[in-house]
Amino acid sequence: MTPLILGMAGPELGAAERDFFTGVDPAGFILFKRNVVDRAQMKRLTDDLRTISGRADVPILIDQEGGRVARMQPPEWPKFPPGAVFDQLYDIAPMSAIKALEANAQALALMLRAVGVNVDCLPLLDVRKPGAHDIIGDRALGTEPMRVAALGRATLEGLRAGGAVGVVKHVPGHGRALADSHIELPVVDASAEELETDIRPFAQLDWAPMAMTAHVVYTAWDAEQCASLSAKVIGEIVRGRICFDGLLMSDDLGMHALKGSFADRAAGVIAAGCDVALHCSGDMAEMEACAGAVSEIGAMARARLDRAMATIGAPEGDFDALIATRDAFLAALQ
Length: 334
What we know:
It comes from Sphingomonas vulcanisoli. This is beta-N-acetylhexosaminidase. The protein is of the alpha/beta class. It has a single domain (about 1-334), classed as Glycoside hydrolase, family 3, N-terminal domain (TIM Barrel), CATH 3.20.20. Helix content is about 40%, strand content about 15%. It has helices at about 15-25, 40-55, 85-90, 95-115, 145-160, 190-205, 230-240, 260-270, 285-295, 300-310, 320-330; strands at about 1-5, 25-30, 60, 65, 70, 120, 165-170, 185-190, 210-215, 215-220, 245-250, 275-280. The chain has an eight-stranded parallel beta barrel, surrounded by six helices. A hairpin with a 2-residue loop joins strand 4 and strand 5 (about 70). The protein is globular, with a radius of gyration of 19 Å.
């Protein structure tokens, strides 16, 4: 198995992709809107990926947050609210917000599991800061670390109850970045003392099964490399200060915050301490370059992967009842 999570080009696997995935044996896969048509198609695709991997529990990821980040969209699937809605409810009734978000996440997981997806790249634990770039924006769960942690916990627990693994992101925090890392490299000049606010939700949820790094430079910790490529940030902050010991994946290697060849990017994030590298575009040449730059997944990384996937149980709950529960709590905002 190689330490890669890879995307694919379309709604079904081509012959070249099938051969490539069979030979490379990536640790997991990730789906995007281009891979999504309807329920039957998604189930065929995810079944196909499981057959190729030979693992019933192979991670199949998706970014299904709600709001503006949703790969599965109406009319085939219902809309889900963004994180900011639950933050607003927390202002009125904290326990209602927590219960609403847990029901929301459990319903999300049930929807994903019905089409064979078992990992949702959620929750965001980025503490939103005034004046920051809107790439996080209403996706955030708030501006106060303990609130973000409480709502993040509800999300993880709801996903687990619905039979899916959650991924906390973007460790050690994207909430004060002034740029969109999809487009350019954000540089955060906050002091180490100020950054304690950013890492607090991640430290509170250090037991999360999976986490995704931020392509952000934090000059107080490492002025040369973004977190995804920094052995210092991953070793001293993510694994040390935060005490996270779950599976750590990079954010997408295709984002423009990173420079250099795809081989260098893939090798770099693994060398820095990420357990797996995430490549999303489905571009075959890029995936081949990534695969050629990494070796077999390490024993510790494989153990973390297995431990994360072992948290999945049978999906529980009734989708319609969970949506009704969520909406009953959110009615307080109207």
